[in-house]
Structure formats: C-alpha cells, structure tokens
Design a protein that fits this description.
By secondary structure, the protein is an alpha/beta fold. Helix content is 39%, strand content 16%. The strands form two sheets. A four-stranded parallel sheet has the order 1-6-5-2. A two-stranded antiparallel sheet has the order 3-4. Helix 4 packs across helix 6 and helix 7 runs parallel beside helix 9. The longest helix is centred in the middle third of the chain and has 15 residues. It is globular, with a radius of gyration of 18 Å.
Length: 233
C-alpha cells in the first residue's frame, strides 16, 4: 500500500497541487476555500444566494421543472474551481470528488423529499460515444453518490439516442437537438410513474436538455420533476 501511495500521489482536481497520500479529499485547502466562496456567491440574475436561487430554467417554457438547486454559477470564459470541477467530472470517475459534490447536492435537495419511497433520482444520460471514450456517465455516478446520502434509488429512466453534442449548438439548435436525442426507457417507465423525480446533471447551460428530459418524464407519468445540478450558467 505504501508503494502504491508513492506511485499514485493524489492531486487537487482544481489546481493540480500534489496532496498528501493520506488525504482522500479531492481539493487542496486553497481550492476548497475558493469553492466555498464560489458557493456563497449570489445569483447573477435574482441576487439571491446560489443555494436558494430559483430563477427557473429558461428553456423550460412548459414549466415541467417545479424547483431546482445548483451549487455554483458557471462562466465558461472565467477560471474558477467550479469550472475545473465540471471538467474533472467529465474526464475521470474520481470517487472522492463525486462523493464530495454528491453530499453537498444532497444537502440542498433533501428539502424536495417528503417520502423517500415515492422519490427517485434520474440522471441526464451522457451521449453514448462519450461513455465509450471515458468509460462512465458522470451524471449517473453523481446520482449514485447522492443516493448513498439520501437513501433514494437511482433509476436510469432516460436514454440518450442522439449523436450530436449540445456544446457546439446555439439555443435554437440545442432545443431541436434535445428533442430528438432523448427518450424514456420502456424497461424503467413503471419505476417513475407516480413518483417525484429528481433529475440530476453536472452542468446546465441553456437548459434545453433539462427541459426536454423533464417533459419526457412528466409524459411518462412522473408526479413532479425537480432539477439538481452542480453548476448553472
């Protein structure tokens, strides 16, 4: 074990600083402090603290998402711990990071859960070629970490059937692409019927994907749909 710890020295997922081999935290002290500061910031739109902000998801014009929680603001043009956390979550299934962020998200969304037996977590599925490339679905791993804290089951009720990534599209293109890229799994449809669904994703930008997934879940019989994400643009 000692040899392994020398060969695989943990590093801060944000700045890359080498951490103590005994340290299983994903962030160094300095980046942890910056992350707490970012989480304590206020929404750029409503001015409320991030944890209590509810400006809504703009693309959700049908209002299928009734409430939402995110931990930090996301600005793709600015360097931040939140941006690096999102990047790290997409590249590697590093459990200490997912467990830390999952626990923080769980603390924010526990208010949505009146009855754990009538609530499920559903991940926004990753595009299949990225799952093949990296070997995992980051929103699914995050959902599993949240589940471990809240005791709410994860149901893989959504499927990604598209082939075009949202990242390179404008809002109109994202909305059109999301409409044809997701479907509800027939295998798991019964598991969401009549349930309160917490939709989990790492990042929400335009909200087109979240809105489409929420719409599909409602059509499949979900009683209510909430949204939980690490960061939102």
């Amino acid at each position: 074990m000692k040899l392994l710890s020398l060969l695989f020295v943990p590093k801060c997922v944000s700045c890359g600083k080498r951490l103590s081999p005994e340290n299983d935290a994903p962030l160094c002290k300095e980046c942890s402090e910056r992350w707490e500061k970012e989480k304590s910031a206020r929404c750029n739109t409503c001015g409320q603290p991030i944890a209590s902000c509810w400006c809504g998801v703009k693309a959700d014009v049908k209002h299928n998402i009734i409430a939402e929680r995110h931990l930090a603001n996301y600005n793709p043009s600015a360097e931040s711990v939140s941006k690096r956390i999102i990047f790290a979550m997409k590249k590697k299934a590093y459990r200490p990071l997912f467990d830390k962020i999952g626990a923080e998200l769980a603390n924010e969304i526990k208010r949505f859960i009146e009855d754990p037996e009538k609530t499920v977590l559903v991940n926004v599925p990753r595009i299949k070629r990225s799952v093949r490339e990296y070997g995992f679905d980051q929103a699914l791993v995050l959902s599993e970490s949240i589940s471990a804290v809240l005791g709410v089951p994860v149901v893989e009720a959504l499927e990604h059937i598209g082939s075009t990534k949202q990242k390179k599209l404008d809002l109109k293109g994202r909305t059109a692409n999301a409409k044809k890229s997701f479907s509800v799994s027939e295998k798991h449809k019964a598991e969401i019927k009549g349930k309160r669904v917490i939709l989990v994703d790492d990042l929400v930008t335009s909200g087109a994907t979240s809105a489409r997934c929420a719409q599909l879940l409602k059509r499949a019989g979900a009683e209510r749909v909430y949204l939980a994400c690490v960061a939102k643009a």
